[in-house]
Design brief:
Porin, 2 domains, 16-stranded antiparallel β-barrel, 16-stranded antiparallel barrel, 55% strand, globular
């Protein structure tokens, strides 16, 4: 095995060198006249960003089910950032120098991977590109069983050499990646891949190979599947037709295809022993309906092991159903998402002991979501927008040339927030303590707006608490893409807006000072009769040492005239299959602990809003009367199996006024076993009355001030909270990614809004 692979490797190098020689000495290229001098600037600064979410659900068919396993339940979410400068050395040679950063969500001060980008590209023609150094990825042409498409999230940067061909009759991705592995590398660890396709009209023929030497299974994060050598090949025909070319009325039917693939695998274990040979067969049918790509595949394999392919191909057979879509957002951004489900036979019950009926199946599935965006300085717009000259543009210049696409925003928040529990040590069994938060938040942001519907932000958030009033001092990146899907409907990926309009029982106001920045995905609606904030915020990625932590929230309101209806849902989760596996099983016959803890809260009810100044002009200072009633529920599921799942409920009645910007209010609360993870701990109390006052003040030069306070009568004590928040935004154009949430009453008046 070793000798044959080394021979294959040497042969590959010879072919690689011959290909380069043929490219350089081909007469067709020699007779090509020299290219005119490039019009691009001497140095072009470029930025490429991907915000991604990948979720793998194995439905219990994990590493204890199959030899070498099907992988583990895994969720990966974060940002991939490439910042580099490109310069043209020769007419066909470019040099890239820069930095790559892999920034998973859930790390306060940690960027898990920072590496240099050094890339030399040689393009003898428009169809051929040779790369030396940092490779061009991802490798999308490979079959998932040969090289999993999800590897782009666990090995997003590769170093080595690459030859890309994209011509009318032939397409190729040939690469060698040296000493690059997930979260580490080792001597003599490399892999070589080839994906080629011959094209003759609608008929294609695919040939692929991937050889891994001393590799690690990237998507099995425990690295239990290591190998000395693993060689996988795939080949087979493919037929692709475009129905719209034959039926002009069917312009939406872009493509129909069928592909048959024969695969082989040869695996030499790292610990020695006999090599394992396997094979497999797959038939795939797909369509393309205006960019929507449904697909159906049928797999059958025997002893098939692909070290960096999708580990689920270790199963003997399964059908696969998939759907994917790429939505281009102009030249600078795109949204990509997809789902996939496979029906795989289950051999064991959840306790891993009892043998199941062979007709028992599980739907193993995965989902992914990506928001890609980029910009560069080739057209000189960055410097023109940031440093405009005094000369006005010509009167006949196009509007696109006069609009500013790049803007700089600087937001600052100075805060003082004091909580006094008046001697109470606990509320409803939950410990509490007097707390004072004081400090400064600062967020400089560069915004690129290639269109009126798309905003792309990059910047830095700095949290600077005063003294020991807070335990954290944090510097975090800001990477955010916001796209307006429809008027007043926006999707955000990356750094989301954290001013969620929840009631305190679900989401505590004071969390602004413990988690001022949130990372995830968000869908916002701000229509006349419907407003919504739907988000997922990821706090911590799962490993064998740490539980995954995330929360999902929805706050919506439907309104018609003076009446409206509020609905809110908030779910916090901590745990995960990887983290809990070694901590929840205590032996045969003993109950397992639950793999995760969950807290699920809801709140819903009507609201009445009346504006007296609309009917009596003499009462211009009497702006609003609000009354809101809510019914709340809670379900708390602790990790310990010996503790019961606790369900609770509560009732809240709140009334408030708006007297020329001064907003007094009163709240009555009654609760029964109500448990909230992220809500105000006061709601653990069986009952209390809250009375408060706040005011937002618009100040000159981009400043705004919110002052307020409230008291609560709890267990015969009067607790009280006072706060002052001073916002400042340069150019009076706020970014406000951090902000105190608006009150549910008078929610249109908030320090989060621009003045």
């Amino acid at each position: 095995m070793g000798q044959s692979i080394f021979f294959t490797w040497r042969l590959g190098l010879v072919l690689f060198a011959c290909l380069q020689s043929s490219i350089q000495t081909d007469p067709a290229f020699a007779d090509t006249p020299p290219s005119p001098p490039p019009s691009d600037p001497a140095v072009d600064l470029r930025l490429d960003t991907t915000t991604f979410l990948l979720n793998l659900e194995k439905q219990g068919l994990e590493d204890n089910t199959f030899t070498n396993g099907l992988g583990r339940d895994t969720t990966l979410i974060g940002n991939l950032l490439n910042v580099y400068a490109r310069t043209r050395l020769l007419s066909s040679v470019d040099l890239d120098l820069g930095v790559f950063a892999n920034m998973p969500f859930g790390h306060d001060t940690e960027v898990s991977q920072v590496r240099p980008i050094i890339r030399l590209q040689y393009r003898p023609t428009d169809e051929i590109t040779t790369v030396l150094g940092t490779l061009t990825g991802p490798h999308r042409d490979f079959h998932d069983a040969v090289f999993d498409n999800a590897n782009r999230f666990v090995r997003p940067l590769e170093q080595g050499a690459q030859v890309l061909v994209n011509s009318r009759y032939y397409r190729q991705d040939l690469f060698i990646n040296w000493e690059q592995a997930f979260r580490g590398s080792a001597t003599n660890r490399y892999d070589v891949g080839y994906a080629g396709q011959l094209r003759v009209g609608p008929f294609h023929f695919n040939a692929q190979a991937h050889w891994v030497h001393n590799g690690q299974a990237l998507l099995k994060l425990d690295r239990s599947f290591n190998t000395a050598d693993n060689l996988v090949t795939a080949l087979g025909p493919e037929l692709v037709v475009e129905p719209s070319t034959y039926f002009p009325a069917l312009t939406w039917w872009r493509q129909a295809g069928i592909r048959a693939t024969y695969l082989t695998s040869l695996n030499e274990p790292l610990a020695g022993g006999p090599a394992i040979r396997g094979r497999g067969y797959e038939l795939t049918v797909w369509m393309d309906f205006s960019g929507w790509r449904p697909s159906v595949s049928f797999w059958r394999g025997r002893h098939f092991l692909s070290q960096q392919g999708d580990p689920e191909y270790a199963a003997s057979n399964f059908p696969e159903f998939g759907l994917s879509k790429i939505i281009p957002l102009g030249k600078s951004a795109s949204i990509e998402f997809g789902v996939q489900a496979r029906r795989i036979r289950a051999f064991f019950t959840e306790d891993g002991i009892t043998y199941q009926n062979r007709d028992t199946f599980k739907w193993v599935n995965q989902q992914y979501l990506l928001f890609n965006w980029n910009w560069d300085t080739r057209d000189g717009r960055l410097f023109r927008d940031l440093f405009p000259t005094k000369d006005s543009p010509p009167s006949g210049a196009p509007a696109a040339d006069t609009e500013r696409h790049f803007t700089v925003k600087v937001d600052a928040l100075t805060y003082l927030y004091h909580i006094n529990y008046s001697g109470l040590g606990q509320i409803g069994g939950r410990p509490v303590a007097d707390t004072t938060f004081a400090g400064q938040y600062l967020a400089p942001v560069l915004r690129y707006s290639p269109s009126s519907r798309l905003n792309l932000d990059i910047g830095v958030f700095a949290g600077l608490p005063i003294g020991d009033t807070q335990r954290f001092h944090t510097v975090q990146p800001i990477l955010s893409a916001e796209y307006e899907l429809w008027p007043a409907v926006s999707v955000i990926a990356g750094t989301i807006k954290r001013n969620h309009p929840f009631v305190d029982a679900l989401f505590n106001d004071a969390s602004l000072f413990s988690r001022p920045i949130e990372q995830g995905f968000q869908l916002l609606v701000n229509r006349e009769h419907y407003q919504q904030d739907l988000f997922i915020n990821w706090n911590q990625l799962e490993t064998f040492q740490k539980a995954e932590r995330f929360d999902v929230g929805y706050a919506g309101r439907v309104s018609a005239g003076m009446l409206s209806f509020n609905g809110q849902v908030y779910w916090t989760h901590s745990g995960g299959a990887q983290y809990s596996e070694s901590r929840t099983f205590f032996g045969a016959g003993l109950p397992r602990d639950r793999p995760a803890s969950n807290n699920f809260l809801t709140a819903f009810g009507p609201q009445l809003t009346f504006q007296p100044n609309r009917y009596w002009s003499a009462l211009s200072w009497f702006k609003e009367v609000d009354v809101m009633a809510l019914y709340l529920t809670s379900q708390h599921e602790p990790t310990q199996s010996g503790l019961p799942i606790e369900r609770g409920r509560g009732y809240q009645l709140t009334a408030g006024l708006n007297l020329d910007g001064w907003r007094p209010y009163v709240t009555f609360w009654r609760g029964e076993r109500f448990v909230n993870d992220q809500g105000d701990p006061a709601y653990y109390a069986g009952n209390f009355t809250e009375f408060g006052l706040l005011k937002d003040v618009a100040l000159p030069a981009g400043f705004s001030l919110r002052i307020g306070g409230f008291g609560r009568t709890i267990d015969g004590r009067v607790t009280h909270t006072e706060y002052a928040l001073l916002n400042w935004s340069w150019d009076q154009s706020p970014w406000r990614g951090f902000c105190l949430r608006p009150t549910l009453l008078h929610r249109h008046e908030s320090s989060c809004n621009a003045f």
